């Protein structure tokens, strides 16, 4: 009996239209049941190949070693220059498009039991298939930004924070001195001791003071986080944290965003942080179906109570 082959739309489209949507690798007659292989394949489906390899490396299942070999073979096929159909130069641009396990032939053995009887032993086999393809440009930007944040050293971050602090301190000092100059200039204007050009210069210095305050407030709100590719978004730091001004988590893999105090907010690893729900929806993100169902249930409950 054939088991479920999840996310095999890429291979079905290939058979129907003749177009290639990825590069695959298959391991046949693996001495394990398809049921055990599917439990591990569900962990890497949709992940980029680097994260998928890390998951398989630390998965405490013996079948994970075989699946990791199949994944490495699929990546090697995709990065092979002789593969003109779907050649990808950089392996970091690949992700697991589809992965599934089919049941193979079952080896039948018997174990002797009491009174001349025997017990049947079924030794299962399976065929494991992994399909990899190139990520979209938007997802590549998110993955690269996350990699750059993870590779940044603590010393470089500390130097950047110290430099920003010095810049803000110098700007505040210059603004304070500019404010005093403006007050003195006003007094001189009343007595007629300064020219019109000096008065205009003093007004410009006062304007610089307001701009410095605005810049300082914006930097304080954003903190040490880099701006994201969408309006109202920032890139998380190396630990995956975001600023207090951007509490909404966004997942670029599923294009979903999670509000605070929702069901999957705590377990979701944010790839981008948004300041408001409107900014997340404007960027193309949407709520998970579970949150929409909860909202509908709450509305229905209120209606019944009324």
Q: Which key phrases capture this entry?
A:
306 residues; alpha+beta; Ribosomal Protein L22, Chain A; four-stranded antiparallel β-sheet; 48% helix; elongated
What would your notes on this structure say?
- The chain is α+β, with helices and mostly antiparallel strands and 306 residues long.
- The protein has three domains: 9-135, Ribosomal Protein L22, Chain A (Alpha-Beta Complex), CATH 3.90.470.10; 153-222; 233-297, no CATH class.
- The protein is 48% helix and 17% strand.
- The chain has nine helices and nine strands.
- The strands form three sheets. It has a four-stranded antiparallel beta sheet with strand order 6-9-7-8.
- A hairpin with a 4-residue loop joins strand 7 (248-251) and strand 8.
- Helix 3 packs antiparallel against helix 4 and helix 6 (154-191) packs antiparallel against helix 7 (196-222).
């Amino acid at each position: 009996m054939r088991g479920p082959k999840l996310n095999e739309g890429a291979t079905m489209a290939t058979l129907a239209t003749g177009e290639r949507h990825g590069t695959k690798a298959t391991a046949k007659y693996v001495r394990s049941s398809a049921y055990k292989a599917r439990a591990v394949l569900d962990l890497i489906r949709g992940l980029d190949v680097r994260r998928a390899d890390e998951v398989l490396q630390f998965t405490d299942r013996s079948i994970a070693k075989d699946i990791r070999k199949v994944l490495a073979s699929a990546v090697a096929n995709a990065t092979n220059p002789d593969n003109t159909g779907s050649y990808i130069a950089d392996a970091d641009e690949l992700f697991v498009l589809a992965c599934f396990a089919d049941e193979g032939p079952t080896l039948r053995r018997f174990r002797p039991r009491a009174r001349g009887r025997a017990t049947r032993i079924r030794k299962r086999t399976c065929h494991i298939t992994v399909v990899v393809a190139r990520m979209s440009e938007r997802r590549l930007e998110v993955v690269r930004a996350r990699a750059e944040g993870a590779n940044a050293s603590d010393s470089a971050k500390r130097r950047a924070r110290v430099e920003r602090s010095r810049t803000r301190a110098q700007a505040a000092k210059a603004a304070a001195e500019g404010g005093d100059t403006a007050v003195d200039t006003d007094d001189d204007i009343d007595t007629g001791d300064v020219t019109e050009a000096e008065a205009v210069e003093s007004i410009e210095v006062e304007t610089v003071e307001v701009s410095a305050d605005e810049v300082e407030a914006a930097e304080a709100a954003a903190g040490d986080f880099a701006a994201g590719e969408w309006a109202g978004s920032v890139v998380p730091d190396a630990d995956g944290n975001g600023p207090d001004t951007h509490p909404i988590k966004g997942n670029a893999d599923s294009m979903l965003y999670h509000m605070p105090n929702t069901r999957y907010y705590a377990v979701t690893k944010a790839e981008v942080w948004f300041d408001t729900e409107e900014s997340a929806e404007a960027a193309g993100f949407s709520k998970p179906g579970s949150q929409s169902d909860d909202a509908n249930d709450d509305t229905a409950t209120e209606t019944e109570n009324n």
